[in-house]
Amino acid sequence: MSGAANPVSPPDITITCDPDKLAEFEQRIADGVLIEPGDWMPDSYRALMLRMAEHHANSEIVGALPEGEWITRAPSMLRKLALIAKVQDEVGHGQMLYRVSQELGKSRDDMLRDLITGKTKYHNCFNYPCPTWGDIAMIQWLIDGAAIMNQKTLADGAYGPYVRTMNRINMEEAFHFKSGEDMVLTLMGGTKGQQIMAQDAFDRWWPIALMFFGPADKPNAEELPAMKWRMKTERNDSLRQRYVNRFAPAAMDMGLVIHVCEKDAAGLVTSKRPDEAIALDEDTGNWSFTQPDWDEFWRVIRGNGPCNAHRVALRRLSYEQGAWVRRAIGTGAVATPPAA
Amino acid sequence: MTMQDMMKDPLANIVLMHADDKLMLGHMQSDWTGLAPILEEDIAASSMSQDDLSHALVLFDALAQRFGLSADDIAFERDAADYRCCDLVTVPDDFNWAIALMKRWFVATFTALGIDRLATIDDEDLAQRCRRLIPEQAIHVRHLSEWVIRLGSGTDESNRRMQEALDALAPAASMLFEPPDQSIESTENFCCGREEMFEQWKSQCERTLREANLSATLTLSPRSMAGGRRGAHADHFASQLAEMTDVRRAEPAPAW
């Protein structure tokens, strides 16, 4: 589900390598040639690409958790089957992306351990709660929709294994999106209680979806490694605007109201008012909107969101409970890492 | 035709026995999605849960057509006492992979024998549906048997954990063979020949267990012993059913 939007902006990278090789490498990227694992690449490229793929892989397997918790409560046989298949897809995306990362030089076990000790991160949007079935519908529609939009631009990147993985993932995400859209439509066409469930969940997830693409890039983003080396190909603000242009009218067509909300520490809405900024600029074709609460974004990404501890604890439990199986088949590590 | 008519029908009870095993097995094991010991097996286990629930759906659908019900009604809207799953499937695994694996292996091995027999009954619709399930069920049995062997014969630690799981589950395992309806004769073809099927199941299980360096005593429980298949479910079944129907109960609606 989760795109790798902004695996935390890279620090300034010192590029120390053979300038001729670097020039040739950058020319290949400029020519649209895909970089393959056996090709020469600057160490900093390898490090950044690993960080991006690993963050994305982490996001997939942490992203499986909030929806996974609703499989046993899915309200029909078909929804239950679709939800298991969907969460399974996310785990499969994680598996593919860990393999991309492994090829860049880090073992899977090291990555799983770094995840549960807090050394590495995952996408911020999974640090929010899913109190109702409506949240599951909104994740699949709004968040998978955002992921597709982001990942389509990542599929225009330069690193071959990652690009091919994005193409494969995007095909599956398209099913998730359609499934989510169908769930939202069913709720909005249902009973009053179902409509309220959908609207409440939309209120929780709309600002999270806007944050999904990350904060605004630096003014010189195109000159920094991530964009210069085509690890990402579009600015966060540009993606966000395209997203609002697509989803704001779609939400309103379904009868949903876009609100600006106050939330409590548990991530639940305490008050809301219609977003009066929502309007179409006929000249640009862009919808204006109220920015999400970026203070909240930074608070959550630093580990103080409603569900950070819960998500990491569940991943740790899974890692620890499964350690004996990995030991028995000879793939894994051996001792449990210390608590973060 | 009503749910009560379905519950009085002997053949429907046999079908529900397998369908409810699969419903509850798929339901409970799906809880592992995203949390299994290794990613590759997470994906495989999730596929098996989807198969189990799909198989349940195929069988519920056959009954739904006969009794004028919907498959979802049969899956979600029965009283607890009308579910025909055995006690083994509903045993909580407490997030212990050895229990989850051993339970699924016992049940899958039983189901494979059961649907083989149902695939030959003089009821073309049901027989044809069961024939569709056979190849997937065979993959489950093979996959799970390989894992039982791999972990049973892995390390001392994995052998111990698997033996503990086996010791915990083996006593309840023969309740897989509890007839779901007292009136069903052991010799009726769709009831599979209880004693004969038990011997077949036991011998298959023991062969795998030997290869896995594990051992268990498997004995057929008395025919009169009533458990889940006749509606006398363990206490935890009520809360499992409540969780499964939580969203539907909270807001009755024509569609979800």
The fraction of residues assigned to DSSP E strands of chain B is under 5%
Count of discrete structural domains of chain B: 1
Beta strand % of chain A: 5-15%
Distance between the termini of chain B: 25 Å
Global mean pLDDT of chain B: 94
Q: Tally of extended strands of chain B?
A: 0
CATH topology of chain A: Ferritin
Query: How many structural domains can be distinguished in the coordinates of chain A?
Result: 1
Task: Describe this structure as you would to a colleague.
The complex is a heterodimer of chains A (340) and B (256). By secondary structure, chain A is mainly α. Chain A has a single domain, classed as Up-down Bundle (Ferritin), CATH 1.20.1260. Chain A contains twelve helices and four strands. Chain A has helices at residues 19-30, 43-68, 77-103, 108-116, 133-154, 160-188, 192-211, 225-228, 236-253, 294-304, 308-321, 323-329; strands at residues 259-263, 269-274, 279-281, 286-288. In chain A, the strands form two sheets. A two-stranded antiparallel ribbon of chain A has the order 1-2. A two-stranded antiparallel sheet of chain A has the order 3-4. In chain A, helix 4 packs across helix 11 (308-321) and helix 5 packs antiparallel against helix 6 (160-188). The longest helix of chain A has 29 residues, at 160-188. Chain A starts with 18 loop residues before the first helix and ends in an 11-residue tail after the last helix. By secondary structure, chain B is an all-alpha fold. Chain B has a single domain, classed as Ferritin (Up-down Bundle). Chain B has helices at residues 3-8, 10-29, 39-67, 71-76, 87-90, 97-118, 124-152, 156-173, 194-211, 236-244, 246-250. In chain B, helix 3 packs antiparallel against helix 7 (124-152). In chain B, 46% of the residues are buried. Classes of the chains: A mainly alpha (340), B mainly alpha (256). Chains A and B meet through helix 2, helix 3, helix 7, helix 11 and helix 12 of A and helix 3, helix 4, helix 8 and helix 11 of B.
